[in-house]
Specification:
Elements lengths: L4 H13 L3 E2 L11 E4 L2 E4 L5 H36 L3 H20 L4
Antiparallel strand pairs: 1-2, 2-3
The chain binds zinc ion.
Length: 111
């Protein structure tokens, strides 16, 4: 037994807020509440939920960091292309593309 029951309920609630679903059937081993998260079933009584929530937080941060890098690189390329583009129709495409990259960048969590 590790962690206070109150702690476990908080972690279970945190997982649910991250998209986990509570399962109707209890754990076969100890009757604990089970949740399904990213295709895996976890028992809130005997599985180490803190490592799951930590891992999820890390991977989200990693993905948003990658996305930020990619978007910045694309925004830079698009800006450079816009600078040399002569055709109005192509400029229009480039501007709307840059606006989308910019919009998505603004939506990323700020560090
Ligand atoms: Zn269990």
């Amino acid at each position: 037994m590790s962690g206070a029951p109150r702690d476990r309920m908080r972690l279970a609630a945190e997982l649910v807020s991250k998209g986990a679903t509570m399962l109707a059937e209890p754990c076969a081993e100890d009757g604990g509440i089970q949740v399904r998260y990213r295709g895996k079933v976890y028992c809130t009584a005997h599985d180490d939920l803190s490592s799951i929530t930590t891992a999820a937080a890390v991977s989200f941060d990693t993905v948003t960091a990658q996305l930020r890098e990619v978007l910045l690189a694309k925004l830079s390329e698009t800006t450079a292309a816009l600078g040399t583009e002569k055709e109005a129709a192509k400029q229009d495409q480039l501007v709307s593309l840059a606006a989308k990259y910019f919009d998505l960048l603004q939506k990323l969590p700020q560090k």
